[in-house]
């Protein structure tokens, strides 16, 4: 018996009957030999961690564009916080922690540079609906490994696609990530906003503080516990209704006071103009696109606009700025 098979047997003994068991996966699009050591979801997790798109998250904006300081969240640190919260909940509910972690680590792979403004810009200038959750699936299916994709299991891809608020994941592990994403960004964005001087802890409405707590630590504990206590032993993952109402209210407060705040969004017009200009440049100079992206859309009978969106959305903030400079800013030269 292999180590993987032993792990699969252990899952059957200790996990909830509602867990997504590794030996019952819906499988991959392309069949491949099993690993002797790792389950299918462990392999998916590792493939995501080692892919190029995951590494680029360290230089992609979370909320604050080009912040002064080393302690503001990036898309990568957000992803790691989502993964840790997800693992805590999954373990407490005896669900499949490896599946949950894989979904969490992959959920933002398709995010554009400069946060959600990049999504809006590409959607507007290309005429193609651009959603980062859909792009994240596209990354793992069609773009990574030079267009071969990562060949992840269907459960992981389903969780990635459905991680946003309107999503409907097919596994409880996917439901955990859907909640954990909001829990993570609401709390770490409060922390970053306080660091930036946009908010003070005392600015948070008392109606939310009284339920969720008056510190990041207390809020995280309350929100996680509200899911575990409500969902333990159940065929669903839900949050205590009163706590969920408070979290939704706090999220609305953040949209009003942080996500649309002039300080947090002061550079967005520049980012929009730059990404828009890059898109138009590649539209008019398709020969300048990396051949891999052109090959992908040709293989799938897609328009060239799709290749441009793939290329630009994969850029980090720093790479997009440097690319813009290289194309449009005069460089010094020596005779």
Features:
single chain; mainly alpha; flat
What does this structure look like?
It is a single chain. The protein has helices at residues 3-14, 40-49, 52-56, 75-92, 97-106, 116-126, 132-143, 154-161, 172-195, 206-212, 216-231, 241-259, 268-284, 291-299, 304-314, 317-328. With 335 residues, the protein is mainly α. Helix 4 (75-92) crosses helix 11 and helix 6 (116-126) packs parallel to helix 13 (268-284). 60% of the residues lie in helices and 0% in strands. The protein is flat. The model has no long low-confidence stretch (mean pLDDT 94).
Write down the secondary-structure element order: HHHHHHHHHHHHHHHH
Q: Tell me the major beta sheet.
A: none
Low-confidence stretches: none
| Spatial shape | flat
**Fraction in helix:** 55-70%
Number of helices: 16
What number is the mean pLDDT? 94
Radius of gyration: 21 Å
Strand content: under 5%
The total count of strands amounts to: 0
Structural class: mainly alpha
Ends distance: 69 Å
Please write out the topology:
Elements: H1 3-14, H2 40-49, H3 52-56, H4 75-92, H5 97-106, H6 116-126, H7 132-143, H8 154-161, H9 172-195, H10 206-212, H11 216-231, H12 241-259, H13 268-284, H14 291-299, H15 304-314, H16 317-328
Could you give a quick summary of the protein structure above?
This protein is an all-alpha fold and 335 residues long. The chain has helices spanning 3-14, 40-49, 52-56, 75-92, 97-106, 116-126, 132-143, 154-161, 172-195, 206-212, 216-231, 241-259, 268-284, 291-299, 304-314, 317-328.
